[in-house]
Design a protein that fits this description.
Elements (H helix, E strand, L loop, with lengths): L2 H12 L4 E2 L1 E10 L2 E10 L2 E7 L5 E2 L2 E3 L5 E4 L1 E6 L12 H10 L2 E6 L11 H11 L6 E4 L1 E2 L8 H6 L5 E4 L13 H13 L3 E5 L3 H5 L9 H7 L2 H18 L2 E4 L8 H9 L4 E5 L1 H5 L21 H12 L5 E2 L31 H11 L4 H16 L15 E11 L18 E11 L2 E2 L15
Parallel strand pairs: 1-5, 2-6, 8-9, 9-10, 11-12, 12-13, 13-14, 14-15, 15-16
Antiparallel strand pairs: 2-3, 3-4, 7-17, 17-18, 18-19
Length: about 450
């Protein structure tokens, strides 16, 4: 059966007439069949028809995709620190979701820390949902947190729809979200396994970092030495060991050390339920290029050297690394200590939610990596991680979340023009390829005036 026959059958079963709420037509539409001329029919916020261009589907509204644009599925970013309530001056649901939409991201999953209270019980989850409910320009879901003393809260949060649980194996950076020991992590993994949830881990070993050189001062080399690869490698080995022992699904956040790739590959091969992400800053920036005092580049784990970056790209292409997400971790300009440039004092985090697609596409093009593959890493794979079966691809039955992307258009990053709340970025002045011209959520345009996003929960 051809795609047109299959889709035609599905669409005829789903509809009683030939008119759609929205039809999108273009020479370049990315579906499971690749980039090809297609027409997409949307009804009630869902994709109900995919046909060859020229069929002339009828719609109450028709969008003609420009010749230089590719119609993409909306990106899914499962690693975003929104920080509201409590630290809304760092970022908030309005600014974060506007930034997401401007970057072609139609779904985010918010991290449980940096807000006050952190998302470690039902009351805190409800407070956060209330804060987001009237401000979301894209779809927003939530991770829960696993900290010492909240074991009894984990199942309640799971049943309330969080997508899984985040823990730290070292100080998180904020006192209200304390870290777990490896043994405590295992205990919580056992609990999560009982209801098939997911443990996502900031994997750096606290003991190794405690004994590493001090990060204070303006030299990036000094900061790099303060967060050695061994800290990541050791902690990832611990995650693998405890995931193997408990049988839980485990996910390694923001992989920076390429040294860990071989153990990850081996663990996956033996059947450990392990997934891994990396982030745009590890794939586009280089330690060798970071000026001393340039604290906009500080993140944890750190940006490493050129050879390490190339191995991360290879890890993606080999399937060892599953997906690319932002780890959007903003703060105020003051907290980045720009005036003094002290890496020991500055907040560790990179704000990149709006820029992820052009950042990755710019580097992918240099390596001969197709746009289809980039979107798989940034949409389909994060959707699979979160269990969002109706997102991540342009397919019949999926949500009508789209981005119109001009891959050959270039622009220069200007922090003053980003929707991120605080105008600081390591990408300032960088020339990038690929412009998101418009974004649709559930078939509706994001107009940056009226928030139309929905709060979403774990499926099943």
């Amino acid at each position: 059966m051809s795609i047109n026959e299959a889709v035609g059958r599905a669409s005829s079963e789903a509809t009683t007439d030939n008119t759609y709420d929205l039809v999108l037509c273009g020479q370049q539409v990315l579906t499971a069949e690749g980039i090809a001329p297609r027409e997409i029919g949307v009804r009630d916020g869902k994709i109900v028809a995919i046909e060859a261009l020229g069929v002339a589907l009828e719609g109450s509204r028709v969008i003609e995709v420009a010749a230089d644009e590719v119609l993409l599925p909306g990106l899914v970013d499962t690693h975003v620190h929104v920080n509201e309530p409590g630290r809304t001056e760092w970022e908030g649901f309005e600014s974060a979701t506007k930034a997401a939409a401007a970057g072609g991201v139609t779904t985010i999953v918010d991290m449980p820390l940096n807000s006050i209270p952190p998302t470690v019980n039902l009351e805190a989850l409800n407070i956060k949902r209330q804060a987001a409910s009237t401000k979301a320009y894209v779809n927003v879901g939530f991770w829960g947190g696993a900290i010492p003393g909240n074991k009894e809260d984990l199942k309640d949060l799971h049943e309330a729809g969080v997508f899984g649980f985040k823990c730290f194996l070292l100080h998180s950076g904020v006192d209200e979200f304390p870290s777990l020991s490896v043994d405590e992590m295992e205990e919580d993994m056992e609990v999560l396994k009982s209801f098939d949830s997911l443990m996502i881990v900031h994997a750096e070993d606290s003991d190794i970092i405690d004994h590493a050189p001090d990060a204070s001062g303006g030299k990036y080399s000094g900061f790099l030495e303060s967060r050695p690869r061994d800290a990541e490698n050791t902690a990832i080995a611990q995650v693998i060991e405890r995931a193997r022992k408990t049988g839980v699904r485990a996910h390694v956040l923001h992989l920076s050390s390429s040294d860990a790739l071989e153990m990850i590959k081996e663990a996956k091969a033996e059947g450990v339920k392990l997934t891994v992400e990396t982030c745009p800053h590890y794939l586009t920036l280089l330690a060798e290029d970071i000026p001393d005092g340039a604290t906009a580049f500080k993140c944890c784990p750190p940006i490493r050297e050129s050879a390490n970056r190339e191995l991360l790209w290879q890890g993606l292409q080999d399937g060892v690394i599953d997906c690319i997400v932002s780890d959007h971790s903003p703060s105020t300009v003051d907290l980045k200590d720009v005036e003094n440039g002290d890496f020991g004092v500055a907040w560790g985090g990179v704000a990149s939610l709006q820029l992820g697609l052009p950042l990755i596409w710019t580097e992918a093009k240099k390596r001969g990596i197709a746009l289809e593959q980039v979107i798989a890493w940034m949409s389909a794979k994060p959707s699979a991680l979160a269990g969002l079966s109706h997102k991540g691809a342009i397919a019949v039955g999926n949500d009508a979340d789209f981005a119109l992307f001009a891959p050959e258009e270039t622009f220069e990053v200007d922090v003053a023009k980003l929707h991120h709340k605080n105008p600081i970025s390591p990408y300032q002045g960088k020339s990038l390829a690929g412009v998101v011209r418009s974004t649709l959520v559930a078939g509706a345009d994001v107009d940056f005036k009226t928030p139309k996003g929905k709060l979403i929960t774990r499926e099943g």
